[in-house]
Amino acid sequence: MHAMRAFVVVCTAHALIAPPVRLRERTAPRATSGDYLAGLGQSTIEEVDAVVIGCGPAGLAAAVELKRRGFDRVVALERREAPDEFEVAKAYLYLVDRRGQRWTDAVGATDGIRARGVSNEGFSLTRIYPDEKGIFPTKPVLARPGAAQAVWIPRASLLAALAERAAHDGADLRFGVSVDGLRAADDGAVDIACGATTLRTPLVVGADGARSRVRDFLAKELPASSFEPRELASPSAGLTYKMLQVPPSFDVTNKTDGSSFTTRSRDAYTVPSRSTKPNTRRLRLGLLPSRDPELPRTANIIRPANHEIWGCATGAEVREFLRSEFPQLPDAVVSDEACEAFAIAEPGAFPSPQYVETVAATVGAARCFLVGDAIHAFPPDLGQGVNAALEDVKTLGDVLDDQNAVAAYQAARAPAAKAIAHLVQRGFPYQYDQSVWRQRLFTVGLVGRVAANALAAKLLPEKIAKRVAPPPAAFSVIDGEDYVGVWKHIKRATRATAALAVAVLARAVI
């Protein structure tokens, strides 16, 4: 009985510390239709079969998919000058897992991505401490067997691979082009103004991010639909990040014995700071696997907005902070130029988990689809941003030949967008050292769910075990399971756990 009560307390604690699921409307200002239409003056009309706005992973994948599905004149627009442009604020790595590879397998792009990335198979993490703890490898909490064939690849490398494939297939990729506005054309198509040219098309794919212009255009044209993002609270939302550039391989000092240790670009490392108590100096550098020796490697720095590192206004101040907090790193690991670039770079911030309820619509006779961050955006807690986007694209391709493609895409991806936002909210939000005690309590709850799932799997049939005690949401998502199904299992189990906890506590009081 005591063991049962302990288990109930653990699972209840896990449920209690999970962030609330209350929704709130995003209040970010929206550009007016007048701003959008300003660019739609006298210009050359160019009629095309499809236009993709945005050439991130979702947009480039959509261009490939449209060509694969038989669309002839496919144009993809991007304001950046090149697909593989190195951006300090976006120099992160993607983990293309089983979910994302369902699309890359379908189009024959997986081998090319593997050639530019590092396999997650046998993935280990080496900790490099600033004291006598020294250097030792450890197994990451979320290193799942289901993700063994996943591939770590820098954003720039993935974009370059997808751009090469899209261009090879005949898509017209136009970089350095800004979209000035969208409007419904008289013939039922959509006009997209971009400089001196207006593209007229019967099919638009909005892959232009969390502040999507395509989505705002649809909201203006279809005010009865729900295109406003709905946000969820999350402990990782709002965390600020920058990337610190380091060499692909470098030497560090093992503080246990003073020996030198050489890192390898294909391995992952975490480098804790000298400060260990929760304060505004405690820090941790994270380096993920990278294959391309020509690309600069980056160390992720993710901290709250009040952290002292963000107050370093010059390269010299960054250098002094690093020197003080990371004695295991020689000065040469981070160049003066990298320190200065870090100081002047604008930090990014993790968004709240969010989704939109309408992900496709018809304007006149034109079909409009949203993919990627335009319909679901969230912190990188589970590494699902790129994988959810590629799943969007695969679904889009699968339904395009359907007479009711808009309705079919809406039915498939709107529930998925909502589910993944909720799953990220609860999946693994305390991995950034925001709160030591909450992180520990969350871990205890995670272990409780793993133990309950293992016990249920031994005693019950698989389907029933998943209903009664499913594995943690993070595990199921990383294993490639359906977002909607995982979310249903988690909700059902949480309700059952809460009911059991109330029953046991009531009996204890009586």
TrEMBL record:
GO terms for biological process: kynurenine metabolic process. Keywords: FAD, Flavoprotein, Monooxygenase, NADP, Oxidoreductase. Its cofactor is FAD. GO terms for molecular function: FAD binding; kynurenine 3-monooxygenase activity. InterPro entries: FAD-bd, FAD/NAD-bd_sf. Residues 47-420 form the FAD-binding domain. This is FAD-binding domain-containing protein. It comes from Pelagomonas calceolata.
